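Shape matters. As here.
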Amino acid sequence: MGKVVLVTGVARHLGARFVRVIRAEPDVDLVVGVDIQPPPYDLEQAPSEGPDGHLADYVFARADIRRPAIARVIAEHSVDTVVHMNVSATPLGSGGRGAVKETNVIGTMQLLGACQKAPTVQRLVVKSSTSVYGSASRDPAVFSERMQPRALPSGGFAKDAVEVEGYVRGFGRRRPDVAVCVLRFANIIGPGADTPLTEYFSLPLLPTVLGYDPRLQFVHEDDAVEVLRLASLAARRGTTNSGTFNVAGEGVLLLSQCARRLGRPTVPVLLPAISWVAGLVRQTRIADFSPEQIRLLTHGRVVDVTQLHETFGYRPRRTTPEAFAAFAAACAAGLLPPERLTAVTDRLAGLLPPAGGRSRTLEQGTLELDLR
């Protein structure tokens, strides 16, 4: 008998994509999708079969991982691989922050308890986040997996992720026979991504913190799904897919560069007033502008992905700029078309004096910029 893979969070976009991919694996016989509501996607039919025409069976179990029923699902199907993707910053449906925290923390505790009692479970993969490192002014330039944040996140999804990883480490000590892989994803982005940061970038005007231009990293949703696939299977020769790994596309983008590529004007706000602006945005339900996101958009965060490349054996196909470009291409046009904004920037750069040279004289002392 082949692998039986249980996937939590299949009602979300990324979970559904992963189910479609893992069903095509020749070593997988059954995929069990778990969530509190049926996914809005057709997962009964995969878009493509495996190279040998293989397509694993799929069943959906409507279950809440916060309840003991999840143990019955694992036992009923003799699950050997658990892929926990129901750790998220956004609610499913109309739930609020309280429901999100319960699912992230209590749900993970209940799931791990069920896995601990199930003798068939051999591998556990957990979708985590680089937000566990936090964002602060005195952070190192680049975080590696072995580094600890100077101050642990005090709330929100980042704190949830820290607690989840703590419970996973405890599970690993109690079940050393289970291969455990924790994947700390940078901001997942792409045409179908639905995260607080993509909501922020969809605003017509982007509030920013005056005097700050943070460095950001992204990982394309295609690469995220591929890393999850590799983590769910036996490690390839010469690699190890057990442990904790940062996952991000190579390179970084400044927030100002992101705004220009989207054609979105920025509205710099003094740091003490940004919380008021964030509260206003949350009240209008346009985007979830949380305190942890404010810190990210103030100080940024960059992680080292050497372990992913050298130990895990995977290098994301898209760099951070390429992943963001794919997202920008699927976004609605901004108020300032990127090509015109780039042209204006280039014209301004051309007016700057060369190093050690004299400033250029402007006709009639003015420069007219055509932004129409």
Remarks:
- Confidence is low (pLDDT under 50) at residues 355-372.
- The first helix runs from residue 13 to 22.
- The CA atoms of residues 13 and 192 lie 7 Å apart.
- The longest strand covers residues 28-35.
